[in-house]
Amino acid sequence: MSEPLVYLNGAMTPIADAKVSVLDRGFIFGDGIYEVIPIYGRRMFRAGQHMARLFRSLASIAIANPHTEAEWLALIDRVAASHPADDQMVYLQVTRGVAKRGHAFPADITPTVFIMTNPIVLPPPAVRAAGVACVSMEDRRWLRCEIKSISLLGNVLAAQHAVENDAVESIQFRDGFLTEASSSNVWIVKDGVLMGPPKDNLILEGIRYGLIEELCAAGGISLQTRRIAHDEVFGADEVLLSSATKEVLPVVQIDGQAIGNGRPGPIYARLYEAYQAAKAAA
Ligand code: PDD
Fold first, then answer.
1. pLDDT tens-digit readout, 174-207
2. Nearest 10 degrees: CA dihedral of 149, 150, 151, 157?
3. Most buried by CB count within 10 Å: which residue of 9, 120, 202, 238?
């Protein structure tokens, strides 16, 4: 197979040749949105849901959608087909486009569309078996966290806070209630009930959020969506993260404090197994 290619504004090119203007509003303002889509065995996982979220994101910041769903899927397929790995993580970004700098939307602007792919990097089995450590912090991001925006400074600072504390993620709280982690959704388990924060403007609704809802319904796991107080997280039997690249991942320590018995729990094990079954059936 020849060199992997990326897609940029109508052309397939090697990544080193893909260039955008310094006046691109993604570069100047972070004015754009993105998606991260897993591919397993050369097939996109939950493609329909990722497309729906992409369309919602574009609409929420009033970027005219440049493609139909079928066109988007065909573009992603072209990029993925150029890569030798069977399991990939596609990154897709749309910015408002290139224009003379000025905050408000320019008239007659053409969106910049970029798609690349890389081999998916999943947590190794030993990490999964042991569970991971997280740190907590105040959520200081803006109030439109439901938009999958490329303006990720708050998330970047939260991720760095985790790294500096030997943690995989920062778990964020706003006004004493759980929101989400730097780049994943957060769940708790108490007395066999899985709980997730409301799908409102304070969190990104992960594609895994919807998948976990489906897996719970199919597997008979009780699920509650409600505000979750700080103390409930630290007093939980289990804490889980979910994202495209973490799938579902058990948290066994926050701020050095053990969660539950300090080991991955039974609800995690059931959800992970169901997740793998969903991948295999897709
Ligand atoms: N992040 N919340 C935030 C802030 C995220 O960045 C992500 C995903 C999620 C989970 O969404 P999903 O289940 O659709 O992956 C929740 C991606 C992986 C990223 O930015 O790389």
1. 999 999 999 999 999 999 999 999 999 999 999 9
2. 110
3. 238
CATH number, domain with residue 86:
3.30.470.10
Number of domains the chain contains: 2
Q: Is 246 a catalytic residue?
A: no
Domain limits at 17?
A: 6-119
Say how many Å lie between the CA of residue 206 and the centre of ligand 1: 6
255 & 129 share domain:
yes
The response to whether residue 46 sits with its C-beta less than 6 Å from ligand 1 reads: no
What is the pLDDT, as a whole number, of residue 1? 59
Looking only at the bridges linking them, the beta strands covering 132-138 and 169-174 are parallel
**Distance (Å, whole) CA 168 – CA 217:** 29
Assess whether the C-beta atom of 245 lies below 6 angstroms from ligand 1. Answer: yes
